Amino acid sequence: MDLFDHKRRFYAGVLPARPNTWDVDEVFELLAELDETRVQALLSYVGAIWPVSHSLCFAYLTHGAQALEQFPKEMLGEWVRQILALYESKGLLGARQFMADVDRFFLGPMRGVAGVAFEEIASLMVHYLRGISGRSIQFAVAQLPSTDTATIFLPGFLDTFPDKQHNVFLYKLLISLQWRQVESRIYCQGLAAKTDVLQLLARYPERQLSADLFAAIRFIQAFRSLESELPGLARQGRGLCLGLIQKIVPAGDEKEKSGALQDLLTQGIGVQDPVGRRALSTRSSWKFLATDGGRKIVDDLWHGAAFDVLPELYKIFSGLAGSYHLGAAALLLGEFDFTRAAETIRLRREDEKEKFVAMLAVFLEQQRQRQRDEDGGGNVPGSSPENLLLVRQKGQKENNSRGRDAILLDNEGLEVPAELAALLKEIQDDLGVLPEAYVQAAAGQAGRGMQKKENGSLEGENRFAPKDGHRYDEWDYRRAGYRKDWCMLTEKSLQPVRSGFVAGTLAKYPGQLNKLRRQFEMLRSRDRFVRRRRHGDDIDLDAMIEALGDSSAGLSPSDRLFVQLLRDERDIAAMFLVDMSNSTEGWVGVAVKESLVLLAEALEVVGDRYGIYGFSGMRRSGSELFHIKHLDEPYGAEVQGRIAAIGPKEYTRMGPPIRHVTRILQETRSSVRLLVVISDGKPEDYDDYKGQYAIEDTRKALLEARGCGVHAFCITIDKAAHDYLMHMFGKGNYIFVNDVLALPAKMAEMYRLITS
Amino acid sequence: MNDPFVCRLEEYRIAAEPFFLPQAKEIDIGLAASANRLPLLLKGPTGCGKTRFMQYLAWRLNSPLITVSCHDDLSTSDLVGRYLVKNNEAFWQDGPLTLAVRAGAICYLDEIVEARKDTTVVIHPLTDDRRQLPVEKLGKLYSAPPEFMLAVSYNPGYQSVLKDLKPSTRQRFVSLSFDYPPPDLEKEIVMREGGIDERLAVQMVKLATMTRSLKESGLAEGASTRLIIQTVKLIGSGIDTVSACRAGMLQSLTDDGELLAAMDEMIFSLF
Fold first, then answer.
1. Nearest CA of chain A to the CA of B97: how many Å?
2. What gap in Å lies between CA A585 and CA A649, rounded to an integer?
3. Contact residues, B window 3-32, toward A, CB-based 8 Å cutoff
4. Do the strands A734-736 and A710-716 form a parallel or antiparallel pair, or are they unpaired?
5. Chain A partners of B92 at a C-beta cutoff of 8 Å?
6. Shared-domain flag, residues A398 and A440
7. Which end of chain A is more exposed for a tag (fewer CB within 10 A), N or C?
8. Do B182 and A532 touch (CB under 8 A)?
């Protein structure tokens, strides 16, 4: 092949795009140096990278020419995988940096260089943190470990220890320590004290010393709590911590202060006889910490509040000579950003309040409605908000977590739904009590809902002129009523594109595909012997004996005496609703498309009826549903072309497409109807379709679907998904995929689980 | 004593008090349901104590407990009974349901959703105020005595849309929702059942709780109380803690390599 053929192959791989000729020429000049097989190898990944980013693709070809001089072409696939993963997390710049230094970033780690990038272990640590904490805390990269209570910040790369295993363990330890900081509620205390923590620390003349001592106290307290929570980790981590503590060095000739800090931390982690005890014991600081008074201070450290212990400790340390460099020990102490944490807590509380008010208002409205129905529609005296009380029913045991909360409405006990009870418990755990204002707001909202419903003026005002399309109501939780014909949904068809996407995907996942086909074949061919048939393959011994018995007893025996091998009919209609909002641009969108290809291949094997639609749109009048595959449409080149054409559009207004697809499913005759929503984030639109309003409308649409016998499930790639998904889809009806690359496998697996 | 039914029935009577720690008011509700002749529906994840609760209730009521594990080949005859031939003579063999109705026992249909829907319809007349069991082949209509109780169980946690209870069946029962016990209670259960000290019991419960948090990450179900007890029994037989946790608990939960690795990290953090 010559240059012309290479270019032709390149252009075929990037269809339907037509890149600038001069850009292409520039890149292909570099490729001219390479031999034929390497060029072919390099070009074989163009189809996978081009849809993600055009610039990335050119950068890949540019750096790839040099990279292939450093490693064999067989390793190119792994290099590309890492490039795409980096592009997803760090953007074009991060990917370019990775490509530019092949030896450091790609070959180094492969040779077993000790350092470990957080990216490498992120998916493992997500499960780990979720397991130990029981909640969804995110990860983000920062220079030093810290947390804002919703996210744990960690260094992107650790090479503190000479072997990789220790560095991975250090990540685990740092994560666990930060988790203890979140659990200790230190940030909530800081918020409750209503004093600016920064100012508090700034009161000390040596500001850095006060901040370091504060961090040291918090580290010791966190480590001590790890000893009871995760004793194995604390035991193994002690030696590692000691190694890091010994990296504190004096910043000058005087060693007193650095030595004292080392001693404090060493004693703090429960090492009573440190390695250098003889040397340390000569120091005045060690002598002090060895006295009763010194021991008392160290003891106080893990019992008292950090703010209370700090002044006394500062007094001792400020009297010591010299200064220190923390070195790698800074990783253990971490950083404390109270301002950032306060903001996160404030936002979370606001969010919880909004959610609680909405849920309680709906619940109260339902109760009132029920009471009105019971009373024959008359006015219910005394159900004004003043008579509303929310109390926590104390079970026999204080910590009986199953003790349900109850609402006292006009002195009548009502059991709160589990979800509301869970939220109530969360708020009470956070704030100590449930603020009166929350309940009053909910009571007011529930009442307002009734009034608005009665006058219905809003609906009239905002109706829009009829157009071609489907009109759908939208749920407004604030007034516990529908906005009539509020949204307009238009069905559109995606123009199929001819590209190598589907073929590329099939070639990319050969093992996965085989496994899926086998698994789904097992679903299809679940043959079973059906007993008591009139005709069959063999005699049903049980039926035969029964017939003999019947006949001897003088009854007319049954003629159903055979067993027959029958194939289980899977009467399933599944609809896949794919989020095509602009946030899916990039690697997420590619993973979703790849998942659809794999799933379609698997579903063709099992023979279930399925449809695929994409949704997006902007504002209530511009909701769009893109047809990719109708329920009974054959899966062929057209559909494959449409899957390849899926691309980011506008916003995520979930209500109208869910309602529309539910309607389509209702018209089918299948006994099991399934709606699978594939999304990467919360529902959101350009207008006021945001936050709680959007979540409540989506939830209502899903409840309507459930009411029509449609089972709804969700697969999401949103890292902050856990809190709202349970509210929207219900417990157990969603799965969260952390690693985008795992999406194709997880999606098919979920479908298999819910339909077998 | 010649009556074969009476002899066999005695085998199903529970003599010693089964160990059961209530989580809420399930015992009171169970007894009240029995007093009011109402059927019971127990729902909850696998291994959380549903069957143990039924054993305890049967012991409290001093009633025999007849358990049927439902499966998709279970026919109506399997529940109601059939004629059999012996020495060229036909005799009627009661099925477990008929046996329980006639003797005033408790009939417990475990995992009712596994049975075919046409089979479970047979229990409908037993679950309303009629409390009757028609046996077509005998041409008889048995009325259940006051002591008879019907209980069914199922696990709503299985995500399969094909396995759900029909509303017409569901709405006949007094429902008791079971879940894994709160940590303190679960610790006591594990100590008692597994015969281990408190420290290890706390750690084991912690590990199980951690696995339960992974449900949204793709784990079908977290470790049950039964799995914890199974694991501590392995430890009691001299298997080291890490191997016992792997074999007795984690490997039974999933085949997913990544989740297993994450759970391995949890073991090493705890022990």
1. 18
2. 9
3. 23-24
4. parallel
5. 553
6. yes
7. N
8. no
In chain A, what are the helix, strand and coil shares in percent, each to the nearest 5?
A: 55, 15, 30
Q: Which residues of A touch B90 (CB under 8 A)?
A: 548-554
B20: Cβ–Cβ under 8 A, 6 or more apart, which residues?
A: B27, B49, B52, B53, B55, B56
Chain B residue numbers with beta carbons less than 8 Å from the beta carbon of A233 are: 268-270
Which of A110, A145, A167 marks a domain boundary? Answer: A110
* pLDDT at residue B144 in the model: 94
Q: Work out the average pLDDT over A675-694.
A: 82
Q: How many domains does chain A have?
A: 5
Residues A409/A388, Cβ–Cβ less than 8 Å:
yes
Domain match, A195 and A290 both: yes
Task: Give the whole-angstrom CA distance, residue A276 versus residue A375.
Answer: 82
Pair A125, A253 in one domain: yes
Determine, yes or no, domain membership for A543: yes
Token digits of residue B261: 């690795």
Measured distance CA(A564)–CA(A543) in Å, rounded: 13
Of B90, B159, B184, the CB nearest to A732: B159
Touching check for B159 and chain A: CB below 8 Å?
yes
Over residues B243-249, mean pLDDT: 93
Is the residue at A493 inside a domain? Answer: no
- For residue A438, report the phi and psi dihedrals to the nearest 5 degrees: -60, -50
Mean pLDDT over residues A340-358, rounded? 84
B241 touches chain A (CB under 8 A): no
Same domain, yes or no, for A350 and A327? Answer: no
> Each residue of A635-682: pLDDT tens digit?
888 888 888 888 888 888 888 999 999 988 888 877 788 888 888 777
- Among the candidates A276, A306, A339, a domain finishes at A339
Task: Give me the amino acid identity at A92.
Answer: L
How many contacts, defined by CB atoms under 8 Å, are there between A and B? 141
Let me know if residue A690 belongs to a domain: yes
Query: In the predicted model, what is the mean pLDDT of chain B?
Result: 87
% of chain A residues with pLDDT over 90: 5
Alpha carbon distance A365, A445 (integer Å): 9
B216 touches chain A (CB under 8 A): yes
Q: Which single residue is written with the structure tokens 């600038």?
A: A20
Residue A562 has pLDDT above 70, yes or no: yes
CB A634 within 8 A of CB A621: no
How far is Cα A400 from Cα A410, in angstroms, rounded to an integer? Answer: 26
| Structural tokens at position A339 | 């301002």
User: pLDDT digits over A436-465, tens only?
Assistant: 788 777 777 665 544 333 333 333 333 333
Q: Is this complex scored with an ipTM above 0.85?
A: no
Question: CB of A425 within 8 Å of any CB in chain B?
Answer: no
Of the partner residues A131, A399, A401, the one whose CB lies closest to the CB of residue B211: A131
The CATH number covering residue A701 comes to 3.40.50.410
Judge if A692 and A740 occupy the same domain: yes
pLDDT of residue A450: 40
- My answer on whether A335 and A348 are in the same domain is no
Put simply, the chain B residues between 75 and 114 with a CB less than 8 A from any chain A CB are 75, 77, 82-85, 88-92
**For residue A593, what are the domain limits?**
501-522+571-754
Residue A302 lies in a domain: yes
Residue B97, phi then psi, degrees to nearest 5: -70, -45
Q: How close, in Å, is residue B265 to chain A by CA atoms?
A: 7
Does residue B184 belong to the interface with chain A, where contact is any CB pair within 8 Å? yes
